[in-house]
Amino acid sequence: MHSVEIQARSVDEAVRLALEQLGRTEDEVDVEVLVDADPDNDGEALVRVTAHGQAEQPEAASAGYRAPVNEERVDEEIEQMAKTVVTELLDAMGFDCQVMAVDNPSVIAVAADEPPTVFIDVNGRDLGMLIGRRGENLSQFQYMVNLLVNKRLDTWTRVIVDVEGYRVRREESLIGLANRVARQVARNRKPISLEPMPANERRVVHMALREDPMVTTESSGEAGNRRVTILPNTSN
Description:
This protein has six helices and nine strands. By secondary structure, it is of the alpha+beta class. The protein folds into three domains: 3-51; 76-164, 2-Layer Sandwich (GMP Synthetase, Chain A, domain 3), CATH 3.30.300; 170-232, CATH 3.30.1370.50. A three-stranded antiparallel β-sheet has the order 1-3-2. α2 (76-93) packs across α4 and α5 packs across α6. The longest helix is centred in the last third of the chain and has 23 residues, at 166-188.
C-alpha cells in the first residue's frame, strides 16, 4: 500500500493514523488535505497521504466520480463488532432500533486506496433527533462509533453509519449538484462556490469530482461557513 485517505477529527490525527497504516514517517510521504476540519462545528478532516514517488495518475471517468473500487466486505467479526458498538450506544441513548451491516449503499464506491469500511444501517421510529440538523448529530455519532470500534482493532477500519437512508439520499443530491455545477464551470471557465456545508458533505463533493478532468475543487472559509469552490482545470 502506497497511498491512503483517512478521515479523523483533525488533520494532525488523520496524518498520524495514515502514517501508522502505511508504516512510514512524515518525511517519507506527501500529505494532501482534501477536507479541513471545522473545530467550531465538530467537522472532520480528510487527508490523502502518499509515499514519495508513489503517486498514481487518476484515469478520467465520464461520470466524474467513479474510482478504482474495492467492494469486498470486511471480516464478519469486524462487522459484528461495529454492530454491537452502534447498538450499545443507541440503547444507552434510549433509541429502539434495528441495526444491520450492509453492502456499500452509497453512489460513491469505496476506492482501492481507502481503508476497509463497514457500512451500518439503522432503522426505527422517531430517529430525527439522531440525524439532527443537516446530519450534524449523525456525524458526531459516527465519530464516536469509529473511536470505540478502532480501540479494539489493530488496523484502522472506517465505519459509515446511516439512519433511515438519510446519508444516501443526501449524497445523491450532492453528487447531482456537483456534476451540474461542474458542467457549468467547464463550459463558462469561471469558478462557482457552493453553499456552506459541514465537512462530511464537502467530502462528498470533493470525491464526486476528484477524477473529473475539466474541474478541480477546494474548500475555503471559516468554521461553519466553509464551502467548496469548483474551479476550471487550468491544465486543460
